[in-house]
Amino acid sequence: MKKFISLLIIFNLSSLLTSCTTDSKEIDNQVYTLIIGCDKAVDNKIRLTVQYPTYKGGSTGGSQKSGGGGDSDKESGVVDNTIVQTVEASSILEALDLMNTSTTRKISLVQAKAIVFSEEMAREGIKNYLQPIARFRETRRIMQLIICRGSAQDFIKENRTAIGDSVAKAMELASLQSDSTGYFPRTPFQEFYNAVISPYRQPFAVYAGINDYTHLKPLDPDSPSPLRPQIEILPGDIPRQGDRKFEMIGTAVFNGDKMVGTLSSYETRYLMMVTSSFKRGIMTIEDKNSKQDAIPLDIRLGRKTKIKTHFENSTPVIDIKINIEADIGAIQSRVKYEKLSNISDLNNQIETNIKKGVEETIKKAQTEWNTDIFSFGKKIARNFFTTTEFEKYNWLEHFTDAKINVEVDANVRRTGIMMDSSPIKYSEMKK
Amino acid sequence: MMKEGKFGTMEAVALTTIVLITKAFYTSIRVLVKATSTSAWFATLISCSVSILLFLLVYLLMKRFPNKELVEIFEIVTGKFIGKILALIFSAYFVYYAGSSLREFVEMIKAYVLPYTPPSAIIFVFLAVVVFFAYVGLEGIARMSYISLIIVIIGLTLILILPLPFYNVDNLFPLAGYSLQTTLFSGLLRASAYSDVIFLAFIINAIHGVKQFKKVGLTSLALSGAIISVTILCSILAFEYTQASENLSALFQLSRNIYFNRFFQRVESIFIFIWVVASIMNVALAFYMSASIFCKTFKIPNHRPSLLPFAFCTFTVTLLPQSLSEVVERNVLFLRQYSAVITYLIPLLVLLLSLIRGKKGEKIKI
What we know:
The complex is a heterodimer of chains A (431) and B (366). Chain A has 431 residues and is α/β, with parallel strands linked by helices.
């Protein structure tokens, strides 16, 4: 018995120390891709761009040395303390092998946080590039799927951070901004891929772009500064300056694997309210009792959105009930909405705004693209007994026929740390 | 007469349950969801119920011959020659079961964890552990199963609870799957997936007789049915039926998707641990059963000298399939869809024959 155990130990040890080394990898012998970008190639099928840290400066994807660097840095793709490498190839996986011909360490995708497709490519269809990501052992389906305006290569070149050292951390934190603004959805690859092959719904993804800071016009003392609440903004168009040029706002809408349109920042919020993924955000409405005055509200979903479906003379009818809770951020007009007698007026203003927004967003999806990005199909499926019947009915075709009823119930819960707005006093010059 | 030792009901239930539920870690979920779509979770309950019925019929046979193991019953009812052939069919079946299960495990581990390690290296290491378990004997395997099942249940519970944010109850609709007939048919066909419980009939004396045999069999079948059903349910809740029918291992995919925040993600190592533990117990038992049935057939008192030849046979079976597709579409399909022809049909034919010929065991004197 002792002999047998000794033999077993020797055998197992020798196996572990010899054969299994084929799969052993020194952590330091690899570079870990942070983001993968896919563009339409010129001389082949795909132009793949990856960004990975250089391990200089003692942090992952750090960016202590800001700025673009010299000409040699530009040629070698150095962006802060990361390298952005691009190659053209016939497939994603082969492109990685081609990249490995010039890198000293094997490029690994196990830590990839996001995959970016250029809008041009997305509009032509990305089915050929979903399979390798879904099938490949290294890639994880928790990575975010992003559609960018312009090329993915240029987009990734701007993936840097001015706050903190780690680009990897910056990327994860940036995607969490969805929860605090609701301006863009969180779309892990898993969700996107699931929706592409789903009979219940159609996919959507984060819409992103590069802001060249030209949308912030020079100061003009004569400008009337008009109030423009719920303005439709697309990525790259936010009137701002400073921090990184990379920005995510809005939603790229798909029909199958092809991008068919986009939702603006507020339309994205309405989409997220219907799908119950909206966490919170500041919504500005125009005070109907004092035009050109804004009421910013901190809004959130009070409870999960209720969706009920039924058929009326073979027309699908969808009843949506959205419950919104809000806190008052400011009342520029100083109208006393905090008072119990006035608060219902403010509730009505919020309800009207959101109801209109949700109805228009759904109408847009129905009439312009016929894509059910709201997952109504999952509720419609309850009206069928078998999957065969449901697949035969083909909900995705019938989405456009659906009659949608939206009901919004808004409740202003809190008024900030003020309970009243006293009138502002002015003094007049003595004549 | 082989001495296999004796162990209690809990160990026996743990041993049987771990053998039955291991298939949920492999490709079975995918196959069932592909065949039935949203109703896969109750299709497996139909399989389990059918298996319980067939097991109760086997129990009738065992009750007719108290204190006799299936190998002995075969010989009493059909004569020595045919009885030995029937027993050898079971021995061969368990070699095939052990080899195919091991190959399925190897293919999965190569797909997910060790893509470039030679399969023979994994098989050697795995078989070495399995042979060691078989060397220790049935009692050792059973007691180890008891500990393993606790670990497996804890790990499985974690894997099924942590992806909670991904679950959507709406994914279960339409409720009846492709059709009720398809669900029923698949459920009936895949009763084979629960037929491994038959091994209890070969070790009835180790589990303290026919009464315990019934208790252990029914308890483990019910427990396994519930665990596999919940696992399939979670897979559909997370992936919808379309993607659940694509995943090589639904559970592994589920564990890879767990993401709570920057600090709590990539926890699939839990899965790999319980996967390896459960697979070892599963293959070890099948391997032991093949050697044990062989020894009992030829009245060999010690099973240990036969372990190496049987390890060689298992190794050969493991290497027979050319690819993963062959493993899934031939070996595994046979084991989980048609194996009842051996595991249940033979004992039931023997029961019929014993009724016709009026053969019966001696009554136990209390």
